[in-house]
Sequence to fold (226 residues):
Amino acid sequence: DAGVIQSPRHEVTEMGQEVTLRCKPISGHDYLFWYRQTMMRGLELLIYFNNNVPIDDSGMPEDRFSAKMPNASFSTLKIQPSEPRDSAVYFCASSLSGGGSRTQYFGPGTRLTVL
Amino acid sequence: DQQVKQNSPSLSVQEGRISILNCDYTNSMFDYFLWYKKYPAEGPTFLISISSIKDKNEDGRFTVFLNKSAKHLSLHIVPSQPGDSAVYFCAASFGNEKLTFGTGTRLTIIP
Fold:
């Protein structure tokens, strides 16, 4: 079975440009999470969806960040305009509710560099 | 406010010995705890978990201990192997699928 798929794996862009990160969750999973990994804050939850509906976006750092989930198999995280401090690794994860395990399955991440 | 804390950024252990990774939390409402392992250039992968109704869970070489009164959990790896060298994250949750992660501990196993 395919795991969580993220694209691109690496993104280098210039300050002020729009960046779009993409995620395909595991088929059948009803939760999708976007994280950012930094040295200072570790794995920081940005936003999560349940059945394609955003549940909690309190971790989104600024209005420059937005996320959508138009259907159960696709989500995007957009940064517009990008800034050098947005440079980080961004992870997408998905999980299946029920069963009590709360285990999330992570994609390989997108390493974003903003020059 | 960091609700889940891993105070040791790094740890080095001799191969064959026990590795002990620690994690503290502040929110007494957390009822489920997980450990994830992360290799470079990969996403975190689930390792082991424990419910707050238990104080120990074991899976092969990995054991997680939970001390609710101290709001502390630990991951024991016995014996440690070179392939265990990675960054380990602890995570906690209460009542739903949302996880709060710590900042991670880099474990290095010395051959």
Observations:
- Residues 36 and 46 of chain B are 5 Å apart (CA to CA).
